[in-house]
Amino acid sequence: MCQAHNSPLSMHWKQRVCRRLPHEPVQANPRPCSNTKSPASKEQNTASITPTPTPTIAASCRPNWSSGPHTGTFRAAVLFVDFPDFPANTTISELYDPIASAPSSLFTTMSYGKLSLELVPILDRFFRMPSPSSSYDYSRALTLETHLRYINDALAAAGPSVSFSDIDTLYIIPPKFADEISFSTSTGVDVTAPDGSVISSTITFGQDLFFSWGPKTINHETGHALGLPDLYPYAAGEAVTKWVGGFDLMGLIAAQAPDLFAWHKWQLGWLEEEQVVCVLEAGVTEHRIGAIEVVDETREAPKAVAVPTSSTGYVMVEVRAALGADAGACGTGVLVYTADSALGSGEGPVRVIDSKPGSGGCGDNNGGELNDAPLQVGEELDTGLGVVVRVKAQEWNDFIVEVERK
Ligand SMILES: [Zn+2]
């Protein structure tokens, strides 16, 4: 996944995900919650609103995230390296072919075509690192200092003839079976390539790319480069699936439902503001919500309901279906979770609320207990945060949901 728990790098990550990527322009006006009613709300066109009382539904209550949106083309240079103590033992094609299109395709699906991940591989040769793979303490005690030495050594090995201009992130891939480079991790610290280009994020891949998680490792780590946090706990002894089970690959790469939460798609600008309906005032409102995995232009149902519960905290309601990136999902229905823009990696920024605690969940150990968290028609969930969600009906992949804000 990302890095060894409690390593010094973990602390670094918390800092990294809370700052804007240097090459990103200041984003246009993340709007604070307002009481402005949206006369053009698509939600109002597709669902009946409980008439009395009529709560205010704001056009947007977009959280004040520290990074995002990210749409358009995102270019990743791909550098292959080997070591004096571990020369390359395969062709580059054997490493590159499995990742050449799958991660890009997944981002295209999850972003509804709004993000295009373009890989720019340097396929000529493996660049020989100046030091043995064991010299970076990578698998034992990788620090920011040794990580940056690893990255700068790789860039120096590539030399000034390799251009890194117009590159958003750098991938460094080691030989297969180079066990010292065991896991994949990332940094948002600027590095300068020999050609003079400044690279603002770098992902160094390890053996987990080949043997544990596969190509989705690239989506997870690139998610960090886009500003998304790890959703699993960093604290020692905690289950990886504690907070989000098998939802969203930022929590578990091998998730049964790897598509990103509406919360993340909202941050990244993959959801338009009108696709997230904000409920600000007390009362009961009814909403049609469309499945997060697909675009359905014929009905244009919103993709989520957001209920702010503090200056940074929200109750979020979305719909999961076994479609698109979640085609293999066992847990579908109306998913309710909390999200907090003030919490970073490892701190539980998103926490699924289980509608069936103690059920044992569904799926094959991919998130276990929380995987069957979604509500079905006729079910109700009191979040304990002054928000109750009731599922009234299902039409195609849409659900009709009643949200009571006390
Ligand atoms: Zn991570």
Automatic annotation (TrEMBL):
Keywords of the record: Hydrolase, Metalloprotease, Protease
Record carries keyword Lipid metabolism: no
Name of the featured protein: M6 metalloprotease
Biased composition (Polar residues): 32-45
PANTHER family with a match to the protein in the record: PEPTIDASE M6-LIKE DOMAIN-CONTAINING PROTEIN, SECRETED PROTEIN-RELATED
GO MF annotation, one: metallopeptidase activity
Organism: Bimuria novae-zelandiae CBS 107.79
GO biological process annotation, one example: proteolysis
Region (Disordered): 25-62
Top-level division of the source organism's lineage: Eukaryota
Comp. bias (Low complexity): 46-60
